[in-house]
């Protein structure tokens, strides 16, 4: 079994693969243009997951590195799912030195609650205090 290597080296990211997954196979970013994926990556702390030099997973964190972080665009390619790689990826994100001591670390998920619960994520303690501007299917328009 190959060992998963996780790095925050943006130069190693496979941009075409990331864009293809997000724009065609994700449930949250269908139709996202490549230029937006590039800008999101440029302005985020990104984690690439690699098997034998081939990228098989991705996650990015938007953060001020002091009080807040938002975990987004987490995925492992379909052929590599069920092997514990998503757990390793989330563990790498949460243990990153620059993401320690934050007051709030948020994410949104439609189907991976069990994964994130094991790392301490819960529904908002005070949901009445949270608000959002949400534009589903924005990239399809």
How would you portray this structure in words?
One of its GO terms (molecular function) is acyltransferase activity, transferring groups other than amino-acyl groups. This is N-acetylglutamate synthase, GNAT family. Strand 2 (45-51) and strand 3 form a beta hairpin. The longest helix is centred in the N-terminal third of the chain and has 11 residues, at 15-25. The chain has 141 residues and is an alpha+beta fold. It has 4 helices and 5 strands. The protein has a single domain (5-125), classed as Gcn5-related N-acetyltransferase (GNAT) (Aminopeptidase, 3-Layer(aba) Sandwich), CATH 3.40.630.
Uncertain stretches? none
The CATH class assignment is Alpha Beta
SSE pattern: EHHEEEHEH
Annotated CATH architecture: 3-Layer(aba) Sandwich
The end-to-end span amounts to 43 Å
Helical content (DSSP H or I, runs of 4+):
25-40%
Tell me, what's the shape? globular
The counted number of beta strands is: 5
The largest pleated sheet is described as: 5 strands, mixed
Q: What is the count of DSSP helices, taking H or I runs of 4+ residues?
A: 4
Round the Cα radius of gyration to an integer and report it: 15 Å
Protein name: N-acetylglutamate synthase, GNAT family
Pfam families: Acetyltransf_1
InterPro entries: Acetyltransferase_Butenolide (IPR053144), Acyl_CoA_acyltransferase (IPR016181), GNAT_dom (IPR000182)
GO molecular function, one term: acyltransferase activity, transferring groups other than amino-acyl groups
